[in-house]
Write a structure and sequence with these properties.
2 copies of one chain form a homodimer. By secondary structure, chain A is of the alpha+beta class. In chain A, helix 6 packs antiparallel against helix 7. Chains A and B meet through helix 6, helix 7 and helix 8 of A and helix 6, helix 7 and helix 8 of B.
């Protein structure tokens, strides 16, 4: 039996603007997905996901659910990772996979990537295939493609390598050395959103108002560059201001909404240094940079405002096989 | 007995950015202040303001309140206008002034300018001094200086001339010919704010983030130029989008707040074409561009959200002596 785990991600700065070539900053946070892999004597792949509330057997492409098949499409990428690893082992064996995750699903926190990464590592270790982090990343990215079409790769990268990463289109991921633990409160609106639709809406707006939206995008890039300096200095005050500015820029391009703004005001009014939506917007989560002494207050304020909330901070631990 | 009246103003686009040389667009709306002037046999100036809840006598610089002197400072500019006009008449006579206003005070709607403008016109007509609109504007602007230090002059200009005006620092006011009636709902947070403090806060932010705030200001100017075209076309849809963008730009520079955003979402969610704060921000009012068929809904939504609201549209009638 092997257990591997991998962390969730939050985008600190630059979502949406990254689509147009500006830098984005993402970090791994200390919420993890855990995949427990054991060998089976038959050649089936059995997956049980407590969080998705689904379990069942894959035999080749055929899936036989135990209970519910509503979220089968979310299991296919996991199964895809497993068969890739088994393919490398050059063996036709079966695997039981039990997945448990601390990461809220469908919230823009990279839950599906963390599951794919941890699954890949667990199965690799189980069957004795030596996988480098690069291998794990590539296999998980391939799984992401089944869900997101053309994912940026930022989710599996963060989940595999941990820490902080600067991402810019057409360039390699660049690790960002940050001493600061980046104390956050993550607030969840629990509203489902479609990142794809929001990306398309921003593109339409940019087509209609090219100079306006074009300039906003450039300012977004400058915010990210300023934030890199502030992260290196550990300057919570400036980081908070930059989060606030970045959120307002996302409001300019129309991806915030009332539910997100409501949680953001709750966080700011209860003492957060600054707050913004994280990810695609239109629902999902906010992040609030919050000094340790105020974490409890900010969590309580977000929950009073109707969201769910938890504390999070940067983790440098990417994917790992648990002892 | 002479009654004169003058309209309120709203800034449609460009507040704050106008401080840095970008164009702003303001219109007169169909809410008016009324000044009724009658001669007195003594040489006193008696002012009664129902809205300010204050009344009393001026004898030279000395003020003797009838009831309350809390808002004496708001009466001094009115008295200043009266003495200027009486000075032109070259007579030492007394005047009774009764002021009634449909314009909420301290809400960024140019209430004090409308009172000064209507007072000036009423007293001028009463004592037979021929005042051009330019004269009325200059006298009212002088009264504004007693309240605001260095006012832009936009309030007395709109209140005197009516219609729509483009204002740009260092340039003359430019009337803007707009056929569209510009159907609005004005929502009032009823929160007092200090425009001066907000202007100073924006300046501090610009000093710290010059390139970011500098670019936002330029985009603000471009929004105003786009809005001029949309106003001429009568394009409510684009005007609504531009209001929304302009509001988010004002959020970037930190002058919106939860109370304003709350009313803005109420307006947008109930069918307004678009909405933004108007004036200095930090409290005061929002404007929501709203097709006639949805006016009632939007008013109701704003009031449910805790604000007060009324319908308004552009008026081309500036100061006038009532029949």
């Amino acid at each position: 039996m092997v257990v591997a785990s991998a962390p969730a991600k939050v985008i600190l700065f630059g979502e949406h603007f990254v689509v147009y070539g500006e830098p984005a900053i993402a970090i791994a946070i200390d919420k993890r997905a855990y995949a427990e892999a054991t060998l089976r004597k038959d050649k089936l792949i059995y997956i049980n996901s407590v969080n998705l509330g689904v379990s069942g057997f894959f035999k080749g492409r055929h899936f036989q659910p135990e209970k519910d098949k509503a979220t089968l499409d979310k299991l296919v990428p996991i199964k895809n990772s497993v068969t890739k690893v088994l393919g490398k082992a050059n063996e036709t064996i079966g695997v039981n996979l039990d997945i448990q995750s601390d990461i809220p699903a469908s919230a823009g926190l990279g839950s599906s990537a963390a599951v794919a990464v941890s699954t890949t590592a667990a199965v690799g270790y189980l069957v004795g295939v030596k996988l480098s982090k690069e291998d794990v990343f590539e296999i998980a990215l391939d799984a992401e493609r089944l869900i997101h079409g053309t994912p940026s790769g930022i989710d599996p990268a963060i989940s595999t390598y941990g820490g902080a990463i600067i991402f810019q289109k057409g360039k390699d991921f660049k690790p960002l050395d940050v001493k600061l633990s980046i104390p956050l409160v993550v607030g969840n609106t629990n509203l489902e959103r479609s990142t794809g639709e929001l990306v398309a809406a921003v593109r339409r707006m940019r087509d209609y108002y090219p100079s306006i939206v074009g300039e906003i995008i450039k300012i977004g890039g400058e915010i990210a560059l300023r934030a890199i300096e502030a992260l290196k200095r550990g300057d919570l005050k400036v980081l908070g201001e930059l989060l606030n500015i970045n959120h307002a820029l996302l409001s300019v391009i129309g991806v915030s909404n009332e539910a997100l703004d409501h949680l953001i005001y709750a966080a700011r009014n209860s003492g957060a240094c600054g707050a913004k939506l994280t990810g695609g917007g239109g629902g999902g989560c906010i992040i609030a940079l919050t000094e340790d002494s105020r974490i409890k207050k900010v969590i309580a304020a977000i929950e009073r405002a109707g969201g769910t909330a938890f504390q999070a901070r940067k983790t440098d631990e990417g994917v790992r096989v648990e002892p």
